[in-house]
Amino acid sequence: MDIARLVAIAGMGILLLNGCGKKGQDSSAGAANKVRIGYIGLTCEAPIFTAVEKGFFKDEGLDISLVKCEWANYKDVLALGGFDVTHHLIMYFLKPVEQGLDVKFTGGIHRGCLRVQASTKGNIRSIKDLKGKRIGVPGMGTPPFIFATRVLGANGIDAKNEITWLVFPAGELGLALDKGEVDAVADSEPIGSMLLAQGKVRNVADQAVDVPYKDEYCCAVIVNGKFLAANPKASAGATRALLRAAKWVEANPAAAARLSVEKKYLASTVEQNAVSIGNLRYVPSVSGAETAVKLAAAEMKIAKMLSPSTDVDDLAKRAFVHLEGVSDEWLQSLPVEKVADGQVPMSWRLREYAMNNPADPFCGMCLIPPVK
Question: What pLDDT score was predicted for residue 103?
Fold first, then answer.
């Protein structure tokens, strides 16, 4: 089975609307100010939770209901109108868009959550060293798999024939390295930072720091195409609320983490969630998202995840749309507050990277009780 087929299968998912549940007030498709926001319950979804709790959606005159979904049917529920707006990974949606999925990207939320990492026990120090090796991933067609495949293709490696892919639960990728079952792994936050802190891996491709990926938006606002056509003002308002919230999260990562945990949007500790959020860059951008769509599409085609006949520029034009009142100039003029206790304390960051070993100079930080 070729890589494009694997990504297509991952894009189809399970066509079940009952995998999602609403939180808050019911939404009516007939009301122009009613918008259903989809979410899974992930660390990186902090702008969604922030926009709700800080009243950013209300400031746009929108009546919001939240729709909680599972990974398995997330894309299909959006496509079928089970919810209207969310923010999610660009690479995860490009193959479905190529195949006709009617959704549109409208603005970039954050950068830098994906990595390819090699075991420190081996001699792999660059992407080219991965040829012929075994790479562990949390699933075929997942964003880490897509990112790794893109990077391999850009370095002249045939990911289908010159790599052995092995699937493990995300939390067991480090164990697979320990047992020698894989030579490298592709992962996302917070797994990548945890493996680095444990001394198990070295980065060979890091979306947060490597050119050309470091300025690429991995996650963007995405809107159901039919909803957008019928409700352009609500779509623009929801996009503005999420981009405003992303800017707030960048200025107040610990406060955003606290809000997400205390309001029970996700299961985590405040400390762990804050450090994970702090490892991402929530610097929202409209032009940045448009560029990311083009770059991701071009490299996915090189890596054979898109059809050889696909016109990348045409795909990017179909996938991205500019909305009224949503621009980089508006974002730059938008003030953002810094709240008390909104930053991630240095002690939390040190403890995250401190190994439980007396020889580790940061080990003393392990003795500080974590925030619940």
Answer: 96
Q: What percent of the chain has pLDDT over 70?
A: 84
Number of H helices, E strands in the chain: 16, 11
DSSP H or E segment with residue 88: strand 85-89
Q: Supply the Cα-derived Rg of the chain in whole angstroms.
A: 20
Bridge partners (DSSP) of residue 111 are 217, 281
DSSP summary character for residue 100 = T
Apex 228 CA angle, 81 and 63, nearest 5: 75
16 and 150 share a domain?
no
Helix axes 46-53, 232-251, angle to 10 degrees: 100
Identify the pLDDT of residue 205.
93
- One-letter amino acid of 36: R
Condensed to tens digits (0 to 9), the pLDDT of residues 252-302 reads: 999 999 999 899 988 778 887 787 788 788 999 999 999 999 988 998 898
- C-alpha distances (whole Å) from 191 to each of 47, 196, 279 are 21, 9, 11
Q: pLDDT digits over 154-168, tens only? A: 899 999 999 999 999
Q: Could you tell me which residues come within 8 angstroms of residue 79 by beta carbon, excluding any fewer than 6 positions away?
A: 96, 101, 102, 103, 224
The answer to whether residue 343 sits within a structural domain is: no
Side chain identity, residue 271? E
Q: Is residue 56 part of a domain?
A: yes
pLDDT, residue 338, reads 92
Bond into 96 cis (ω within 30) = no
d(CA 187, CA 168): 11
Residue 61 pLDDT:
97
- Residue with structure tokens 């769509």? 293
CATH number at residue 65: 3.40.190.10
Query: What letter would DSSP give residue 309?
Result: T
Residues of the chain with pLDDT under 50: 8-18, 24-29, 355-372
Give the domain range for residue 181.
114-206
- 243 lies in the same domain as 101: yes
pLDDT of residue 30: 53
Q: Partners of 22 in the beta sheet?
A: 67
Beta bridge partners of 108: 220, 285
